[in-house]
Each structure stands twice: as C-alpha cells, then as structure tokens.
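Why do we bother with holo predictions? Because pocket geometry can differ from the apo form. Keep that in mind while you read this record for nicotinamide-adenine-dinucleotide.
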Amino acid sequence: MRDKIGVAIVGYGYWGPNLLRNFSENRSCRVVLVCDRRPQRLSAAQARHPGLPMTVQFDEILQNPAVDAVALATPVSTHFLLGKRVLESGRHVLIEKPMAMSPAQAQTLLSLSLRKRKTLLPGHTFLYSPPVRRVSKFIRGGTLGRVYTMDFSRVNLGLFQPDVNVLWDLASHDVAIALSWLGRLPSSVRAQARTFVRKGIEEVGHIWMDFPNRVWVHIHSSWLAPVKLRRVSVVGSKKMLVYDDTESVEKVKIYNEGVLKNPKSFGEFQLTYRTGDILSPKIDASEPLSLEVADFLDCVRTGRKPRCSAEFGLRVVRVLDAAQRSMRKGGAPVKL
Ligand SMILES: NC(=O)c1ccc[n+]([C@@H]2O[C@H](COP(=O)([O-])OP(=O)(O)OC[C@H]3O[C@@H](n4cnc5c(N)ncnc54)[C@H](O)[C@@H]3O)[C@@H](O)[C@H]2O)c1
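The structure, written out:
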C-alpha cells in the first residue's frame, strides 16, 4: 500500500461536497479524481478545489492506477451497479446509504467485497455520530431501564429524491440508528406512505417496527413539512430521553421521569407519575462524517471491519425492503 491512499469521489451533488471536503482534510489519503456526469457540478467542484483532476466518465476512475478506493455519492438507484464495478476492479468502496435497492443486491455487494478482500462501508453516518453513540451507551447500559418505545421524527421541506421514496431516503437514517441501538433486527415491520405532489414516489411515510424484546419503534419521515425536525424520544421503565440533532449544544437530554405501578390491593394497581431532574451530558462535537472517513481509510489500510459494516448495511436494506412490501399491502405486517 502506498504512503497515501488514492481516493476518487463519484457524485458531486448535495452530499458529495461533504465527502470531498472530509477526504481532502484527512492526511492518510489523497483525492486523485472527482467524477460527476454533469459538467456544471464539476465546475462547482473546481471552484472550491482548484487544480483537482475531474472527469464526467466513471470508467476513467477504473482505469486510473492511482485510485485505490472510491466514495460513491450518487443516487441510490446507481449504487449497486457502480459499487459492483468498483469492487470487481479490485478497489475499496464507500457507498452512500442505503447501499442498494434490494437485499439481493446488498448481499451481492457484501459477498463480492469478501471475495475480493476489499473494504465495503455503507455510509450510515449516524453510526459515527457522538450523540448517537452516547445514547447507545445509555440504552445498552440500562440507564433507561427496559425500553418501551422509540419515536423518530425526521421531517423538513425537500429534498425530493428522483429515484427513491422518503422511506429509503430519510427513514434509512432512523432505521440504522434504531438497529444500532437495539443490536438486532425487528421481528416485523409495517409501513404506510403517501404521495401528494408527484406521482409514484411517496413523500410522507411512517414505519412501525416490533422488536423481539417488545420494543416498539415508530419512524415518521417527510419531505413536506414546514419545520425541520431531527428528533427521537426513547421511553424506558426508569428514565426517558430526547435526542434532538437540530440543537447545537445539549443534543441529548435524559428525563428522570416515569410511571410507577404501586399495588393497591390484590389485582389492583395505583399509578404514580415520577418527575425528577433533567440531565444533559457533555458530548464530543466531532463531525460524524470525518470519523466515518477516518474509519474507512483505516480499514482500507488494515483490512479490519468498519464500525458500519457491509453486513449492517444489508440489515438496513432488509428492513427498508420489508417496509416497502408492507406499504404495498396497505400497511400489513411483514415478518423478517
Ligand atoms: N450520509 C448522509 O447523511 C447523506 C446525506 C445526504 C445524502 N446522502 C446520500 O448520498 C447519495 C447522493 O445524494 P444527493 O442528495 O447528493 O444526490 P444528488 O442528486 O444531489 O447528487 C448525485 C450526483 O451524482 C451524479 N451522478 C449520477 N449518476 C452518476 C454516474 N453514473 N456517474 C457520475 N456521477 C453521477 C449526479 O449528476 C449528481 O450530481 C444518496 O445515496 C443519498 O442517500 C447521504
């Protein structure tokens, strides 16, 4: 392996500039090429990164011997074919979330990365988010007691995606967060979604997931909302928690609140509501994407498995696929 890992970025739309900035700032790599099939996007990249080689031809990346690894920030419908070609060429790949449009596609990419012994990191950036990791510790460490529910809201106006609905776009973040916090797949998934502005690509949707340990998770996703919400509340038997990613500080608050069941007489209970202090832990403010990029590059160098593994990416796709199937059946439960 050469001194600095040679990286190419494909897709310079909304998210690609963040990947390019983070790879450019990481000292263990060198960005050797940026690719977007729209020349005007390359002009925008050129303005910010003068002198960086650019191309509209994806094939140029596969022909360039200086490219060791590729980061794909192209639309979801392109992930499978482009990712497959990168892996087949013997290169490492970071594929933006969700890594593919079906479990079969995701499984093919996973198997290919294993066969070629190349890193495949699906870009579920929230797995690297310090507040998400802190909440994970609270949940897994038992601070909240037995978790009853998780309620996610990820709504705002736009950005409408051309190829996938709001569940594959916005809810993919919350599915990833919930799976990482609970460490397992749900036993069943239900979903409903609707179109209002365009035809055929749902803009507002809900997913409900039932987990084997009786945790009930709800996700609300929308491209049609007047305010931006990025919030989840987690209700446990001992404490409750709110994680609001739109807050600049105090993103996580733990409420020492709950309901107690006091036996009144045999078979009868009296409920008492307990309220106490609100605690907001100090949380590291590192940018999640810089941690994700650093993990990817370290895995490329060492061959170890990334924090966000291809197996995890496949699990997210399995849940989204189940949600899609449930949606088609009017919200009927789909078992996993
Ligand atoms: N991790 C995150 O937090 C996060 C946030 C936003 C978006 N994303 C993901 O990033 C990906 C891109 O989303 P976006 O909102 O930036 O989309 P976008 O449409 O704004 O940008 C995609 C770019 O890819 C280019 N492109 C398409 N096909 C190409 C090809 N074959 N070769 C070269 N260039 C090609 C397009 O011209 C466009 O500029 C999606 O998978 C999305 O889910 C991730």
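The CA atoms of residues 199 and 267 lie 54 Å apart.
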